[in-house]
UniProtKB/TrEMBL annotation:
Keywords: Cell membrane, Cytoplasm, Endosome, GTPase activation, Membrane, SH3 domain. One of its GO terms (molecular function) is GTPase activator activity. GO terms for cellular component: cytosol; endosome membrane; perinuclear region of cytoplasm; plasma membrane. Residues 622-632 have a biased composition (Basic and acidic residues). This is Rho GTPase-activating protein 10.
Length: 783
């Protein structure tokens, strides 16, 4: 049962029942006061914990931002660049999230703590003051009554009347105080329900707004996350191929170390112990040195190196060698020794000790000017060679295999990755490579040969060629464009190099790549994307002449070359290249007179003002500028290998709907201020105010086109009426080099057909020379 009402009429009687009801109201207010006090304490603890969490998250974000991966080799793939930049992107994501958390902590203070403290101080404190006044008047009233009743009846009538009047006046005042106190009690009981709950509601409103902001950030992050997953998967697939090659090379070297000795400019190199003579009482000592001898210049160099002391090296010593001779056992108490003399120290031989007799022989033969080196450093390629040739039978084998695969198994999952039984593969290959039985083998209708056996036989044939299909000679040239340049410059370079191949090689490569492009078109069923096919056929179509770990590390770039061939088959094999070899173009620098380009990000991640946390979350989903794009299944997406290198300002995976990496926090604010078309106000993002967006875009156009450039000011989307969606022509007023495969490269004066607004803010879609792609909005002028 709830509290009983305090009737004003009972205040005059001041009955025990009224006093009991007043005490019940007072007890309830004391309980409410304790609750608010505890709530304030917990709220302040929550704020402190939120700030501590925010500080820990920021520290974690700084740790992510400050670390950078180092990759093996002289270049990184686009996937590795994106992975390397991912830690910085994660750091930015946490930073943006913690900015919102700080706003939440501030809103808790403003919307919860201060209102409750104010209610406790002003309302509950006022009741306490009224209670003190009521208790004081009660004591005064009943004391006066008792004193008045004790007056003697023998007093004068005038004195008695004065006493009666004073008591009556005091009782009237007590009655007024009682009424005010009762009224205050009932008022505060009614007020507490909304005065306490409203701040809590505001707190939850801010909390839900924070979670909603996190959801918006997660939506912005989703496309980048999907692309990064593909980058990681591509890198993992390449790692698996690289690891198997490295392990194979390691096992070969284990079996025959000397045969795989790496050729370099040194005639001989290795560890030797050098005798260092001391004064007579101390004898001599032997110090380990790493020695190198270059026979052409007769230069011998050595550097002391001790593995047990942490690998600390001493100073390098070099001299010209005059002679070397074997040291006999009867002249020294050590084995495997030989003497050598330097030109600048005639008559003073230096005694060396090898690790074994065989090593001493090698050193003596190398150092002796009359002898030759025992090891052939310029060894021929030791790779397996078969009888496979690029002849009529070879073309027949490839065509028969491709026809059978496309007829029977184009949709088989893991096509080319699932290998056949080696004995069956070898038997099929023997039949196909025999001119007598080749035409008799029916691969399309025979159930004897599984699809995986046919694919393995075809790959085995290509590996058995005396020289890889893309030749040893051009191997290094093919690798170079895969390591640098824009997507279009890579395609142009590989286009040029393909047409340098011997005619038979180019014809075979054309047949094979056309088939692989067909396989990739069925990736939704067979899961063999362009990236997966690149991993399978990169080492098959390309390989270096010499097996080294550094060459194996370039396998990932071989994969990229194959991916580019598959993605651009028609252009590369059906058109003639430019007359000159295209130089790789770095995409980190914009054209000198060009305005800044719109960053293609999935919405700007800005702070939201505190006022946002006092709004109700009843906004329509359509009001948000950062609406998610349609997700693309990972299994059906191609490789990101044709992306551009990471630009100086931002980088993004290829494709029109992919997120760029967020600007570095150190200069992002200044850069965004100088380029207002790349940022949007939080309130614009929430409320979708057209006038604000238009003003921002117009300001961006003014900023983007400096007055010193003699070209006309380009017309942007903000200068056109909203209903203008009719395709139009436009002329390029600035040159542009594409950063992504979805963008167009063009020169000043290029004419674009069918130009329309793009879903990407600050970008247009148009057609140039039959290719459709994205165009920076402030780089063109409408005709």
């Amino acid at each position: 049962m709830g509290l009983l009402a305090l009737e004003f009429s009972d205040c005059y009687l001041d009955s025990p029942q009224l006093r009991d009801r007043i005490r019940a109201h007072e007890a309830e207010l004391d309980r409410t006061n304790k609750f608010i006090k505890e709530l304030l304490k917990d709220g302040k603890t929550l704020i402190a914990a939120t700030k501590n969490l925010s500080a820990a998250q920021r520290k974690f974000a700084h740790s992510l931002r400050d670390f950078k991966f180092e990759f093996i080799g002289d270049a990184e793939t686009d996937d590795e660049r994106c992975i390397d930049a991912s830690l910085h992107e994660f750091s930015n994501f946490l930073k943006n999230l913690e900015e919102q958390r700080e706003i939440l902590a501030l809103s808790v203070t403003e919307t919860l703590i201060k209102p409750l403290e104010r209610f406790r101080k002003e309302q509950l404190g006022a009741v306490k003051e009224e209670k003190k006044k009521f208790d004081k008047e009660t004591e005064k009233n009943y004391s006066l009554i008792e004193k008045h009743l004790s007056l003697s009846a023998k007093k004068k009538e005038l004195q008695l009347q004065e006493a009666d009047s004073q008591v009556e006046q005091n009782r009237k005042h007590f009655y007024e105080v009682s009424l005010e106190y009762v009224c205050k009690l009932q008022e505060i009981q009614e007020r507490k329900t909304f005065e306490c709950v409203e701040p809590v509601l505001s707190f939850f409103q801010g909390l839900f707004t924070f979670y909603h902001q996190g959801y918006e950030l997660a939506k912005d992050f989703n496309h980048y996350k999907m692309d990064l997953q593909i980058n990681i998967q591509n890198t993992r697939n390449r790692f698996e191929g690289t690891r198997s090659e490295v392990e194979e090379l390691m096992n070969k070297i284990k079996r025959n170390p000397q045969e795989h000795k790496r050729a370099d400019q040194a005639t001989m190199e290795g560890y030797l112990y050098v005798q260092e003579k001391r004064p007579a009482p101390f004898g001599s000592s032997w110090v380990k040195h790493y020695c190198t001898y270059k026979k052409q210049t007769k230069t011998f160099s050595m550097i002391p190196f001790e593995h047990r002391s942490g690998g600390k090296a001493g100073d390098l010593e070099a001299f010209f060698l005059t002679y070397c001779t074997k040291r006999n056992m009867d002249t020294i108490d050590r084995r495997f020794c030989f003497d050598m003399e330097a030109a600048d120290r005639p008559g003073i031989p230096v005694t060396m000790q090898a690790f074994s007799e065989d090593e001493r022989k090698l050193w003596v033969e190398a150092l002796d000017s009359k002898g030759g080196l025992f090891i052939n450093l310029n060894r021929p390629n030791t790779r397996r060679e078969g009888s496979a040739q690029l002849d009529k039978i070879g073309f027949t084998i490839i065509r028969k295999c491709i026809s059978a695969i496309e007829t029977r198994g184009i949709n088989d999952q893991g096509l080319y990755r699932v290998v056949g039984v080696s004995s069956k593969v070898q038997r099929l290959l023997n039949l196909l490579m025999d001119a007598k039985t080749c035409n008799e083998v029916d691969l399309e209708n025979s159930v004897e040969w599984e699809v995986k056996t046919i694919t393995s036989a075809m790959k085995q044939y290509l590996r058995s060629l005396p020289e890889p299909l893309m030749t040893y000679e051009l191997h290094g040239e093919f690798i170079v464009p895969a390591k640098s340049g824009s997507p279009e410059s890579r395609v142009s370079a590989i286009h040029f190099l393909v047409h340098k191949l011997p005619e038979k090689n180019k014809e075979m490569l054309d047949i094979l790549v056309k088939h692989l492009a067909n396989v990739s078109n069925h990736a939704k069923k067979n899961l063999m994307t362009v990236a997966n096919l690149g991993v399978v056929f990169g080492p098959t179509l390309m390989r270096p002449q010499e097996e080294t770990v550094a060459a194996i590390m370039d396998l990932k770039f071989q994969n990229i070359v194959v991916e580019i061939l598959i993605e651009n088959h028609e252009k590369i094999f059906r058109t003639l290249p430019d007359a000159t070899f295209p130089e790789p173009i770095s995409m980190s620098i914009a054209p000198p007179n060009a305005p800044p380009r719109q960053s293609r990000r999935q919405g700007q991640r800005n702070k939201r003002p505190v006022a946002v946390y006092n709004l109700c979350l009843d906004l329509d989903d359509g009001d948000s500028h950062s609406s998610p794009k349609e997700d693309t299944p990972t299994g059906s997406m191609d490789s990101l290998s044709s992306q551009s290198p990471t630009p100086a300002i931002s980088s993004s995976p290829s494709g029109p709907d992919k997120n760029h990496l967020i600007l570095d926090s150190g200069d992002g604010g200044e850069w965004a201020t100088n380029h207002p078309n790349l940022t949007r106000s939080s309130m614009v993002s929430w409320m979708n105010t057209p006038s604000t967006t238009t003003a921002t875009s117009a300001t961006a156009t003014a900023t983007a086109a400096p007055s010193s450039i003699p070209f006309p000011t380009p017309t942007t989307a903000s200068d056109r009426p909203a209903e203008s969606v009719v395709p139009r022509k436009a002329r390029a007023v600035y040159p542009c080099e594409a950063e992504h495969s979805s963008e167009l490269s063009f020169r000043v004066g290029a004419i674009f057909e069918d130009v329309q607004l793009s879903r990407e803010p600050g970008w247009l879609e148009g057609t140039l020379n039959g290719k459709r792609g994205l165009i920076p909005e402030n780089y063109v002028q409408f005709l």
